Amino acid sequence: MKICIREIPPQGLEIKETLDPKALGLYDDDLKCVTPVVVEGNVERIDPRNVLAGLHVKGTFSSICGRCLEPIAQTVDQDLTLSFEVDKKTEFIELDEDIRQELILALPPVTLCKEDCKGLCPGCGANLNTEKCKCKKG
User: Fold this and answer.
1) pTM of this prediction?
2) Does a structural domain hold residue 116?
3) Three-class SS of residue 46?
4) pLDDT at residue 79 is higher than 70
5) Which of 1, 90, 103, 108 makes the best surface tag, with the fewest CB within 10 Å?
6) pLDDT, tens digit, for every residue of 114-135?
7) In this structure, how many other beta carbons lie within 10 angstroms of the beta carbon of residue 3?
């Protein structure tokens, strides 16, 4: 999402965009955003050298549970503020990479399908949430 600095009016520029997850680099083997990323907010020039973007971003990600490996979906619904230093030569600011990084940082490092997920049996691989262990004891 490219914003032309000269087109930002004194009261700020309202934006509402829907971004393709593939264009943001949010659709690969490890990290999949399965819905378009919705971005709404205001971009304003707070002084001749700074542009501030107050944004609300939302997208749904597909991942797997860190214990039982079941697929899960989680929604990131977050407000963020991005600050850009500009000078007289700066014509545009680009928001995509900053939005991508903020979405990634908003995701937990390990996702669980539920708080008390029992995970997989290390011996037989059974999902202990849905079945009993098949290991032979003794």
Assistant:
1) 0.81
2) no
3) strand
4) yes
5) 108
6) 999 999 999 899 999 999 988 8
7) 18
> In this structure, are residues 31 and 74 in contact, taking their beta carbons and an 8 Å threshold?
no
Classify 116 as helix, strand or coil.
coil
119 within some domain: no
> Where in the sequence is the domain holding 30, given as residue range(s)?
2-106
Q: What are the contacts of 37-41 at 24+ separation with CB within 8 A?
A: 37/99, 37/103, 39/1, 39/15, 39/95, 39/99, 40/15, 40/16, 41/14, 41/15
The amino acid present at 67, given as its one-letter code, is R
Q: What is the pLDDT of residue 28?
A: 75
In a domain, 75, yes or no: yes
Q: What percent of the chain has pLDDT over 90?
A: 70
Our count of domains for the chain comes to: 1
Torsion of CA 112, 118, 124, 127, to 10 degrees: -60
Q: Which of 59, 74, 60 is nearest to 109 (CA)?
A: 74
